[in-house]
Amino acid sequence: MQIYQIELFISVIFVLNFQHAAYMKIIKLNATTSTNDYLKQLSKETRVEDFTAVWAENQTAGRGQRGAVFLSEPFKSLTFSVYVNEVSSRVEDMFILNFLVSNVIVEALESFNLTNIYIKWPNDILSDGKKIAGILIENTIKSDGGFQSIIGIGINVQSINFNGIEHASSITEQNKVSIDREELLIKIVDLLSKRIPIIEMMRQEEKERYHSKLFKKDIVSTFETLDGNYFNAIINGVDHEGRLMLTDQSGNLRLYGLKEVRLLY
User: Fold this and answer.
1) CB-hemisphere CA count at 13 Å for 188?
2) Which distant-in-sequence residues (6+ apart) come within 8 Å of 46 by Cβ?
3) For the whole model, what pTM was predicted?
């Protein structure tokens, strides 16, 4: 793999992948508020090629799930977004994409010999029970019934400052290793470019991969509802709509959406 870099007010990195006989385009910024927002605006102003990535060394207003703020330490984290114009012809595949992206990050991290990597529903990436990465996918439904996506990914690579956030950590803190951020970025984008084009054929396989790495699956865990009630249940999995499937102490199946319940651990 060869890397060609042109120094502009931003850096544009072209990676030639000989297996695909195609280029990967990475736009590297010193700083931006949100790589998702930057890529969204760029796609309005010009034609953006599929799997173009925008990488910011300093993301000042990153967002997470449920409206949360994603904090990242400048020059020690990997914060980037990837553009995909045609993900699937079925809007129902939106959560299959969440399965796929979560799986890809786990596989990319494991390719660097990291172990004990799991997915906490819906898409936090954990290392030994500590969050080291998060995902924010923003989808736009198209007139033909399909959808396009901007996939935002934040990974704490060498970070040491987490502003007191519970359960937050980094690859370096959890695994005592240092990973090259650009190599990790290229690995993730390469996997996305291979897997997303065949998402409609691999729905079940992506779902099974996700469940094989689902944190606390088949284990009795404690949950908190929005109104502050606590209960114990077993995580059975996640359905095709992204709902968490739990079996409570009475043996009843419960389904919960993204903002309806929180796993305590």
Assistant:
1) 30
2) none
3) 0.90
CA atoms in the 13 A half-sphere facing the CB of 68: 13
**DSSP state letter for 243:** P
> How wide is the angle at C-alpha 45 spanned by C-alphas 39 and 47, nearest 5°?
80
Q: Does 155 have pLDDT greater than 60?
A: yes
CA atoms of 91 and 93, how far apart (whole Å): 5
* Residue type present at position 59: Q
Residue 85 pLDDT level (bands cut at 50, 70, 90)? very high
* Domains in the chain, CATH or no CATH each: 2-212 (3.30.930.10), 220-264 (2.30.30.100)
Element (H, E) at 208: helix 203-212
Torsion angle of C-alpha atoms 29, 65, 213, 229, degrees rounded to 10: 160
List of E strands, the chain: 2-7, 11-17, 22-32, 53-59, 77-88, 117-120, 124-127, 130-141, 147-156, 220-225, 230-238, 244-248, 253-256, 261-264
Answer whether 77's CB lies under 8 Å from 154's CB: yes
